[in-house]
Design a protein that fits this description.
The protein has 420 residues and is an all-alpha fold. The longest helix has 40 residues. Helix 12 crosses helix 13 and helix 14 crosses helix 16. It is built from 17 helices and no strands. Helices cover 76% and strands 0% of the residues.
Length: 420
């Protein structure tokens, strides 16, 4: 019997989709490595403020929280500027390198060139605001990349899989490098010399990741891939009014915001330190064992991300989001009921009175909960790229940066409530 050729999504839908090889997706998404490296470095800001600028920890916390407002305000303006920017070499690689250069410069000023040489709070804030500008440019490009790389509904969810892999892998690896390699070199102390060394390492590592990402984005970073379908050149121009019209007239985006932001808010609330401390430290009675359980339950996340991408590719991002959100809620309710009817100290099999069956059921519920949340995250990332395509079909304008920045602004505004 002759082997039946499997039809591509383009042949099934009668549309010529833009696809790229998997290896290009893999290296094109390495900008996440750069983002995670700076994320780890900026996690040391409280140490930097203390040893480098003589600031109280509480003051540093206030500054970092207050600057989130600046971060949210500049995103829309940067997004419009990015969507308006055009060159014969495309825009993503140029903007990635620009964003990297700005935040690398700001980080070197904060951690190396001015650390220990001044106690000016104004200078500290100014340098950090400069870092935020570079970080925002870089993140907007990183988040709009999936929409540009491919518009194949089956391939698009796989991009989120690579993002998930990198977002888990790089922080773990970089934290290990920080604590196992650099920290012992400086006597195990978070002093100025250690922070400066970590900064230089971060900048060099991030530069390598950014350059590799630019290589992966080269085939799709072309001017024609950023053109809209408006009737005239004037109608295709981007302005701040487009963002307001986008929010007002794009109902699917508003519905996406309700779903994606509420899901993320729920996840943020559930992952707060006070929640995990009450769960594992008080109710289960062993914080260390709770940490072990959490790590074990998170390890299969990549497998769940792959499964979630396949489901979204087959059934669509909308159905995947709805389905896995329901699954996550049902698992959460079952977990709550389970914890209400058992003696939770039996989960701690390392302590007296532990029960292996109760612990196994609890672990399975953690696995199911984390897996369903991962599937939701994968579908959400894919759906945001779909919104970009829908907006071009609706308005005739291709606005990947505007869509990304609008989502980021609302997401930051709402999810900041997770800490309260």
């Amino acid at each position: 019997m002759a082997k039946i050729k499997k039809l591509s999504q383009s042949e099934i839908d009668g549309v010529q989709y833009r696809r790229i090889p998997t290896w290009q997706i893999a290296i094109g998404q390495l900008h996440s490595g750069c983002a995670m490296a700076f994320y780890v470095l900026m996690g040391m800001m409280s140490y930097l403020g203390d040893v480098g600028y003589g600031m109280a920890t509480a003051a540093i916390g206030v500054i970092l929280s207050a600057t989130r407002i600046f971060d949210g305000v500049i995103d829309p303006f940067l997004a419009v500027w990015i969507d308006k920017f055009n060159s014969k070499h495309g825009k993503m690689r140029i903007m990635l390198l620009l964003g990297f250069a700005i935040r690398a410069l700001a980080a070197l000023m904060l951690f190396v060139w001015f650390s220990g040489k001044t106690k000016s709070v104004v200078l500290f804030i100014t340098m950090y605001l400069l870092y935020i500008v570079g970080n925002s440019i870089f993140d907007i490009i990183g988040n709009m990349a999936p929409a540009v790389m491919t518009n194949d509904p089956k391939q698009r969810p796989t991009i989120q899989v690579w993002t998930t892999v990198y977002n888990y892998m790089f922080p773990m690896a970089l934290n290990m490098v920080s604590t196992a390699v650099f920290l012992p070199m400086f006597g195990g102390e978070y002093n100025a010399a250690f922070l400066a060394a970590m900064c230089w390492f971060t900048v060099i590592f991030s530069l390598v990741m950014t350059v590799i990402a630019c290589i992966g984005l080269t085939p799709v970073d072309k001017p024609e891939n950023f053109e809209g379908i408006a009737a005239s050149t004037d109608e295709d121009k981007v302005s701040m009014k487009d963002m307001l019209k986008f929010l007002k007239d794009n109902k699917p985006f508003r519905q996406y915001i309700y779903a994606a932001v509420s899901d993320k808010l729920a996840q943020n609330v559930g992952s707060q330190a006070i929640i995990t401390t009450m769960m594992f430290g008080i109710l289960i009675g062993n914080m260390m064992f709770g940490t072990i359980l959490t790590v074990i339950s998170m390890l299969p996340s990549i497998i769940f991300a792959i499964f979630g991408a396949r489901y979204a590719g087959k059934h669509g991002s909308k159905k995947a989001t709805i389905t896995w959100t329901w699954v996550a809620m049902i698992v959460t309710v079952i977990t709550f009921a389970f914890c209400a009817v058992v003696d939770m100290r039996q989960i701690n099999i390392l302590g007296e009175g532990g029960n292996i069956v109760v612990a196994a059921i609890f672990l399975l519920l953690l696995l199911a909960g984390n897996g369903s949340k991962m599937c939701v995250t994968t579908a959400n990332g894919s759906m945001r790229a779909d919104i970009v395509d829908y907006e071009m079909d609706r308005s005739g304008k291709y606005l990947p940066a505007v869509v990304t920045a609008t989502y980021n602004f609302i997401d930051q505004l709402v999810t900041s409530l997770g800490a309260t």
